[in-house]
Design brief:
With 196 residues, the chain is mainly beta. The chain contains one helix and 15 strands. Strand 3 and strand 4 form a beta hairpin.
C-alpha cells in the first residue's frame, strides 16, 4: 500500500498547530539540585482541522480515513507551496533546494550546504533524502558555511544529496476512531504525531 496523503490540494486544511516534543532526562535531589541531560530526541505533534464542503468531500475523506485506519497506517500531511495563496502562512515550506557539501555520519548535527542564494532562516524545516524525519535548522544557513540542525542525523548521508525544504511530515493519528458530521460545511479536528 502506498502512503496516503492528506493534502490541502484536496481539502481545506486549517488551524494547523505544531508542538515540538524534546524529551530529556531530569532528576532532582532532596536538596533541590537538579540535573538535566538531553536524550537528543525530537517528535512533531500536529493538530489541524479538515473542512468538508459537501457530500463528495465527506465520502472522499471517509475513504481516506478508512485507508489510514486510525493508528494502523501512517500518512503524509501535505501543505505545499503550489496550493497556498500569496500571503498564506506555511512554515513547513521554504523556497530552497540546497545540496549537502559534506558527508554526514549517524549522529552529526552540523552540515555545510551549497547552492544557496541569500539565507535560509533559522527554524526552517527540511528532510534528508530517504529519511522521513523532519529536521530543523538552528541558525541561519548561508552558502558554504557550517550550520547546526536538530535532531542529529539518524542515518549517513553523502555529499551532493539535495535537501528537501518542502516538508511533508509522515504522521500517525493518535486515535483509532473518527467522527464525521454528515452535513455541508462540516469539519473534523485531527491529532497526530510524527512517525520516527
Amino acid at each position: 500500500m502506498t502512503t496516503p496523503i492528506l493534502s490541502d490540494a484536496d481539502y481545506i486544511v486549517s488551524d494547523v498547530s505544531v508542538s515540538h516534543s524534546t524529551p530529556n532526562f531530569h532528576t532532582e535531589s532532596l536538596n533541590m539540585v537538579s540535573n538535566t541531560m538531553s536524550r537528543g530526541l525530537h517528535q512533531l505533534e500536529v493538530q489541524f482541522k479538515v473542512h468538508l464542503v459537501n457530500a463528495d468531500d465527506i465520502k472522499r475523506f471517509q475513504a481516506l480515513m478508512l485507508n489510514i485506519r486510525g493508528r494502523l497506517n501512517p500518512f503524509k500531511l501535505s501543505l505545499q507551496d503550489q496550493t497556498d495563496g500569496k500571503g498564506q502562512c506555511n512554515p513547513l515550506y521554504t523556497n530552497a533546494k540546497p545540496l549537502l557539501s559534506n558527508a554526514l555520519a549517524i549522529g552529526n548535527n552540523k552540515m555545510v550546504l551549497s547552492g544557496i542564494s541569500g539565507t535560509i532562516k533559522a527554524g526552517s524545516m527540511f528532510h534528508f533524502p530517504n529519511d522521513a524525519k523532519v529536521y530543523v535548522l538552528l541558525e541561519d544557513a548561508k552558502n558554504n558555511q557550517t550550520v547546526s540542525f536538530f535532531p542529529s542525523t539518524r542515518q549517513a548521508h553523502e555529499v551532493k544529496e539535495r535537501l528537501n525544504f518542502s516538508v511533508e511530515p509522515l504522521l500517525r493519528l493518535e486515535d483509532d476512531s473518527f467522527k464525521l458530521t454528515y452535513s455541508n460545511a462540516s469539519e473534523i479536528t485531527l491529532n497526530a504525531r510524527e512517525v520516527l
